[in-house]
């Protein structure tokens, strides 16, 4: 661990930050209120950043310029130089935030711990903007001291805390931890909105924030952590448990008008302890050891087709060649097997049912979907016949194994263009379905299983299963969840297709599937 600490202290950004801070302490009149933020800008943020991401040389240069710019602000009163300095620092925060955005786009809505780190990296821009507002004396609707404290808030409560909670999540993960993460991630913005618009919102958001921090602190005290590192992590959260009470008392004072904690109290106690007890502790902790991510990059094949395309004129008889690729065919009725292997021998009738809360979005979206000719589901729940054909797709154009497109339409108007393929990981074979969109494609990676003669397909399965958006080199997991259930009864097939967004059901489709009779 000491080797890790020496390696951190030898990094250029750390050396420059420490040097700049030493220069300020030696040659500038001590003003502790301003040093709370300066410590984070010069040392805390750069040290944590280099533990998480690989910076390019030009990015390091911009961050170094930002460090020097923060230092120069203590030695100049010229408006033009102040403007250059705050813009330079803001640019450095944009570089940091770009890593959060890039990380998120390469992974998407999966792995709560990594999302917390992404959010922390992105939040730093808010700190840069409030820092700029303070030095340029912009009218934010608040006093200068509140503007300055808000800049501190986004460097500590947003950047450092979100990243720290994310790194803890790399070590331990529970369901309640995920709930706490939602509160902590939203907390900085909710508190800021409450201060701006509503004292009620402020006290509620601070109360939830207090509860989440105490809950995470409980887990930190309970979980097994690396021995030396655990001392610093636990010190950091013990400090937070004390200082967050001051935030609650300050919000309560604002709500009731009865002054219990005021701004000087917040600076002298809340600010000082968060800087020394929390900031320094977490920097030491993650410098000693930064837990590696448990997320593996996506490696499944992605369709290269984007937007409108032309398949071959060669028809395919079914969506798949052999159901045995996915499961034991004897576990499901023969008719279900026939439907997937000889799809064109079947007729589909569908009833589309939007959930009430989603209907306004569905109504607006249909004007877009009609022009795209993709995901163009009817707004009415009336049962209607879906026509279609299945055509082979050139594997060279698509990039996946044996692709074929199922083009479905209603009354001659296109509804779906879904390109079916499959891929196998070390354990499962997945149905790999691509829906081409403008400049992108949406992928449903479905896992198949059977129970009691019923076929289940879901994006909530193991391994690669999920719903993704592919844009350029990015493969982004979406908060969409799909569930198909297919049954056979007296020579007829019925199927349901349910979709959820962030766990909330928004779409239900009922299918009646009947084998065509020879006429």
From TrEMBL:
This protein's UniProt keywords: Membrane, Transmembrane, Transmembrane helix
UniProt superkingdom: Bacteria
Cited InterPro entries: YndJ-like
Transmembrane segments: 9-27, 33-49, 58-75, 81-101, 113-133, 145-169, 176-197, 203-220, 232-251, 271-289
Entries under Pfam families matching the protein: YndJ
UniProt-recorded name of the protein: YndJ family protein
Organism: Solibacillus merdavium
Lineage: Bacteria, Bacillati, Bacillota, Bacilli, Bacillales
